[in-house]
Protein 1
Amino acid sequence: MIGEFLALFASFCWAFSAVLYRKVLENKGYFIVNLLRVGFASLFLAFFLPFLLLTSQLSSLTFNEILLFIFAAVNGPVIGDTLYFIGLKRVGVSRTQSISSSYPLFSMVLATIFLHENLSFAIIVGTPLIVIGIILVLPIENKNRLNSLDSFSKFTPVLTAFFWSIALITFKFILNNSGINPIFATFINRLFSLPFLFFTAIAVNEFNQIKKLSKIEVVLISVAGIVSLGIGGISVFLSLSLLDASKAIPLSSVSPFFTLILALIYIKEKLNFKIFVGTILIVTGIFLLTFC
């Protein structure tokens, strides 16, 4: 039950942080926002390493493990998260969240091929139920807006899901084949992402936006980065160390469901039939993956 709880808690952290950096993205570029949030998360994680006696693992990393960490970092925080921000800004929040949350479908196939995990009946049924439920509970923006976008922008949510699944499966592979602590793995993932994000922000002329950030925007980015990539990252990697990827990853994908709950409580949004059905599907999928 601990692994299942950690996966669900990670998804809650991602839902909470999405509310914070969504506001910053209205006026700032996605590359610089991504760079800063990863930077703040790295500092947060680095602070705890000495207390957890994990600094010695730096010298014990093998060359193959370093390559795998770099591969996961490039596919996750660098490419996957940047595509996610592009989708939020160009395609819209709800459509991007719903489609990108389909990454368990990709990871389920990848886990079978590369990790040789067996797909139980609960996983085969529960994973699609969660994905379909997420799509139902989220409102979809005006289709006229989507029709006016270029082809690349339209596919960013799908590409996001694909690259996220590659990153998560890679991390599960690392955890399966090494004695690396999941918390240390979270730190290395964020650390290895920084050079790529730094040079990308410079290349697209977004690095100078740092000077234009207000104090409130800095606070929002730092808190969002620490909650999503720090606390949420630790939770999902600990979950991956305890559960099969085909079980942990679908549970971590329900952040839009928590976003809906927060909206119902604090914004007093109305619960229509579509949202009700979607919620039932998500809860059913979570129940199957957790207790079956």
Note: Residues 2-291 form one domain.
Protein 2
Amino acid sequence: MPTIEKQTTQAARLNFRLPPEIKERIENAALISGVTVTDFAITALAERSEEVLEKQSHRVLSDRDRDIFLAMLEDDSEPNEELKKAVEEYKRRVISR
């Protein structure tokens, strides 16, 4: 596991409790990796948070949904009344904040 570059000053702090068996597993994994528990935890948390954020930023459509989406993009018909109402409601609730 790659380690993070050590910083000379602490910018922020995270405190949390965890079950003893998880703590022991983390300590063993850090020992095997040849890093401190702190470095191991920071690296693991940073990597996992990047995975979650990366996954959130991408949308994967099924073939069916992709086809529907592309067909809607190509459709040049005017919006119906329900869609116009939905846009106005969106503007009222979200954009006007």
Note: The chain has four helices and no strands.
